[in-house]
Amino acid sequence: PHVVALDLGLKRNILRSFVDLGARVTVVPATHGAREILALEPSGVFISNGPGDPAAVTAAIATVRELLGKRPLFGICLGHQLLGLAAGGKTYKLKFGHRGLNQPVLDLATRRVEITSQNHGFVVDTQTLPRGARETHRHLNDGTSEGLELPDARAFSVQFHPEAAAGPHDTLHLFSRFLRDCVREKGSGTA
Question: Which residues have a catalytic role annotated?
Answer without folding.
Answer: 77, 161, 163
